[in-house]
Amino acid sequence: MTQAIRFSLNGTARELKVPASSRLIDVLRDELDATSSKKACGIGRCGACMVLRNGTPANACLLMMWQVEGADIVTPEGLDAVPDSVFVRQGLTEENAFQCGYCAPGFTVTLTALLRDVASPTEADIREALSGNLCRCTGYHSIIRGALRAADLKQADSRAGAPDSLA
Ligand code: FES
Ligand code: FES
Fold first, then answer.
1. For residue 132, which atom of ligand 1 is closest to its CA?
2. Fewest CB atoms within 10 Å of the CB: 18, 22, 45, 167?
3. What is the C-alpha radius of gyration for the chain, rounded to an integer number of angstroms?
């Protein structure tokens, strides 16, 4: 049985009729052509499917569509709306953080939320935030370096924008 579900996807109001028990990750990829969120484990263990739900990182493979009603969903395609994503992408790129890249969208979503909420995250903060994101290729060192570089870039940007007396 289908149900009309209304929600915001990357700032655009959407309404579609789907089974209420269908999973957001499948609807994103199969119905809405939002394929940056990846499906890997499908059981909430790897973070490849990470999206922001009302601003908080959430596994799209664990979200039933009835849980999405009225929600604000941001996928990797919509991360430009969160200014901190610029630092995250640059930091990860500068450190060549990924190999195959399959995990990259999920890591980017999680790190963008962290940098938005924590002005100067420590390595411990980063490792804690990324505890739900798995990478099968890198051993994590390059990703952690990329996240720390993103934090440095944000700090530098803040200093550049500060009045001289505060810089
Ligand atoms: S696919 Fe959702 S957590 Fe792995
Ligand atoms: S770079 Fe391949 S899974 Fe992370």
1. 3
2. 167
3. 17
DSSP per-residue string spanning 90-147: HHHHHTT--SS-TTHHHHHHHHHHHHHH-SS--HHHHHHHGGG---SSS-SHHHHHHH
What the block records as the tokens of 50 is: 């990470």
Of all protein residues, the one whose alpha carbon is nearest to atom 3 of ligand 1 is 44
Q: How many alpha carbons lie under 13 Å from residue 42 in its C-beta half-sphere? A: 3
State the Cα–Cα distance between residues 62 and 58, nearest whole angstrom. 8
- Please give the DSSP secondary-structure letter assigned to residue 149: H
Which of 43, 102, 134, 135 is the pocket-test mutation for ligand 1 (most atoms within 8 Å of CB)?
Answer: 43
How many angstroms does the Cα of residue 76 sit away from the middle of ligand 2? 16
Cα of 167 to ligand 1 centre, how many Å?
A: 42
Q: Sketch the domain layout of the chain as residue ranges.
A: 2-77, 82-161
Q: pTM value?
A: 0.95
What tens digit of pLDDT does each residue of 37-84 get?
999 999 999 999 999 999 999 999 999 999 999 999 999 999 999 999
CATH superfamily, region 2-77: Beta-grasp domain (3.10.20.30)
Region 82-161: CATH code: 1.10.150.120
